Amino acid sequence: MPDMFDIAIIGGGITGASVAFFLQGQRSVILLEQEAALGYHATGRSAAEFTRRFHSTETGQLTQASAGFMESPPDGFSDVPLLRPRGNLLIADAEKADHLHQVYETERDNTPAGASPVELLSIDRALEKMPFLDPNWVKAAFYDPDCWDVEVENLLQGYIRGAKTQGTEIRQSAPVTKAHRDGGIWVLETPTGVVRTHTVVNAAGGWADDVAGLLGAMPLGITPHRRTAISVKVPGYDVSHMPEVNEIDEVFYFKPDAGQLMISPADETPVDPHDAWPEELDIAYAAHYLSECTTLEVTHVAHSWAGLRTFASDRLPVIGFSGQAESLFWLAGVGGYGIQTSPAVGQIAAALLTGTDPPSNVTASGVNAARFSPARFEG
């Protein structure tokens, strides 16, 4: 007899793991991940930052609702703090100097609740924070102290460990290959066996539209986008305590990572879902941007990789029950902010799945869960 569950979550990235955790054992749950490792595609290849600024209104609300959990997770959730102070140095060349000052004034006058004020810097002060910036290139800068590195693996494993403690079964190397309805129950076929479930949560990231097709629902236009990163050594510098650096329009960014610098050309190329790899041109752009704005000479790329950032057409997450397929719940499209908003997204999804009210941290942040409903794409 196939295994029977209340909820089957398809996708073992940060989003699927978070809803499994926040269901808090209120339902019997199985999580099915197609890869041999959890968080393999997007979660494990993220730039891993938590920042309160530079978001849409809705993403800012989700970030605000997630801040308390990220700053102070439950006892035993992680052996280390989930957030490490990093700071964000925003820079511009002569052509964009005036634009940077405009962005600074906007951010100064619209400081999010609980955030520290931004600070306009002289070029000398910017060089104190990042000494290998090229003063011939950098003509304007300001500093945002409210940017942290996220310990992504600890966050993911905290969710998974907590979900297992609450009774969630985790299966890896378990892609859903076929699905059908049988007497009001979903029957999911996987290489690890057949699973029967009342509700399916589609948390498949870049594969969300494909999974929806298996379940008889129309695609919603959930599109993965490739983003590239490289890492380079920086001889003669201890970069560990230096800030992240963002070009004012995020044409590129770089940040310390494991004693080296990680650089991204901030590319967002729409692609089919796949195990992403970097294109040579994007690798070259990353090295070029670093060489252009610093005095460093990039002669060797220590490592290069790419990941998938998945968005709906309006750049908002899709959270809620489908109007096309019975007992199908969408949890997709969290894009480049899935890690930092995973506490709020997981709590919202868990509340909708169990028919309960979202917690006070979500409502107090002004989040309107109806804004994320898949109905906006289903006609």
- Uncertain segments of ≥5 residues (pLDDT<50)? none
* Mean pLDDT figure: 96
Proportion of residues in helical segments: 25-40%
- Element order, helices and strands? EHEEHEEHEHEEHEEEEHEEEEEHEEEHH
* Silhouette: globular
Q: Which architecture of the largest domain does the CATH hierarchy give at level 2?
A: 3-Layer(bba) Sandwich
Q: In what range is the share of β-strand residues? A: 25-35%
Number of strands: 20
By secondary-structure content and strand pairing, the structural class works out as alpha+beta
**Number of distinct helices:** 9
CATH class of the largest domain: Alpha Beta
Examine the coordinates and then state which fold CATH places here, giving the name of the CATH topology of the largest domain: FAD/NAD(P)-binding domain
Oligomer designation: single chain
By CATH, the superfamily of the largest domain comes out as FAD/NAD(P)-binding domain
Task: Write a compact overview of the structure shown.
This protein has nine helices and 20 strands. It has helices at 14-22, 57-71, 97-109, 123-129, 152-165, 208-214, 280-293, 342-354, 360-364, and strands at residues 3-10, 29-32, 49-51, 83-85, 88-92, 119-121, 140-144, 147-150, 169-171, 178-182, 185-190, 193-202, 223-232, 244-247, 253-257, 260-264, 269-270, 303-311, 318-321, 328-332.
